[in-house]
Amino acid sequence: MTLDLIAVGDSVVDIVIPISRFLRGNEDSLHSDGMERHMGGSSNYLIMARRLGLRVGVVDCIGDDDLGNFYRAGLEAEGVDISNLIIRIGGKTSGCLVLLTKRGKHAYVGLEGVSRTLTAYELDEDYVTNARALFLSGYPLAETPISQAVMKAMRAVSVAGRLVFFDPSPVVDLISADILREALNATDTLILNEREMGLITSKFEVESKPESLLSLGAGRVVLKRGAEGCSFYTTSRIENYPGFRVKVIDTTGAGDSFDAAIVYGTLRGWPQSDTATLANAVGAIKVGKKAAGRNVPTLGEIKGFLEERDLSLASRLS
């Protein structure tokens, strides 16, 4: 079976702790009603892409612990190919502590695990080059030795003429300049927000604008603007696409869900305007739901959202 999309790394389980608000001043404690675990990291865009209809797979490491079993079972249930998901015996699955306020604000604390231990030797080049596209996340590019596995995958798919989508993530400033420059140069579609754009352009001492990212090698830049929508930049044109105003419950996974919709529209050959509208809609639906992973939008929710707004895109989703 030929896959549409492969992701390497960032297999994480989120531990979500709801709180009323963040600490203030000299406060040192807050009360929470409990905690929940949800799939996170690369599962967010993999599950979203799968629900939209793409065939997806993952290359990474998880532990044989309870969190790893939970993560693997979730991917299997969603139809994600896990034939290249390595289980480290005695290893601890990577995690993320998510503090979520009633107003939908959050703070993250990374919990180190075995995801970062994937080596270039363990990566099957044939597996990644047989897919139509590779999705790069900045998180594994900022860690070793997995960054070398990700770069091996990126180089292989570039030589094979496959598409590369890259979301540099909030930790882009931790990625080495050499790795980041090579990744940008190999990227067909760069998807990021304004803060991440500023971190990249500051690293390379260029003006903080999308055109600078194009000059660094990205084929196309998609700038995420939250409720304001998104903008697409190429060397020949700039297009802005308005977003949707919705009530925000939790923004976790909204960017990942948006990314998956960009990949879907691109691989399906949709017009750019339709791809942008779908991505904005998917992101808007996600912020209305708590957590991510298997809580990303369903196909039914997406169709309903589009139909309520008399958008014909709903009929094009199978």
Based on the model shown, name its key terms.
UDP-N-acetylmuramoyl-L-alanine:D-glutamate ligase; 9-stranded mixed sheet; alpha/beta; globular; 318 residues
Characterization of this structure:
This protein has one domain (5-22, 34-309): Ribokinase (UDP-N-acetylmuramoyl-L-alanine:D-glutamate ligase), CATH 3.40.1190. The protein has a 9-stranded mixed beta sheet with strand order 5-4-1-8-9-10-11-12-13, sandwiched between helices. A 4-stranded mixed beta sheet has the order 3-2-6-7. Helix 9 runs antiparallel to helix 10 (272-287) and helix 10 (272-287) crosses helix 11 (299-308). It has 11 helices and 13 strands. The relative contact order is 0.14. With 318 residues, it is of the alpha/beta class.
Secondary-structure blueprint of this entry?
Blueprint: E1 5-8, E2 11-19, E3 36-41, H1 42-52, E4 56-63, H2 66-78, E5 81-88, E6 95-101, E7 106-111, H3 125-129, E8 133-137, H4 138-141, H5 146-159, E9 163-167, H6 177-186, E10 189-193, H7 194-203, H8 210-215, E11 220-224, E12 230-233, E13 238-241, H9 254-267, H10 272-287, H11 299-308
Parallel strand pairs: 1-4, 1-8, 2-6, 4-5, 8-9, 9-10, 10-11
Antiparallel strand pairs: 2-3, 6-7, 11-12, 12-13
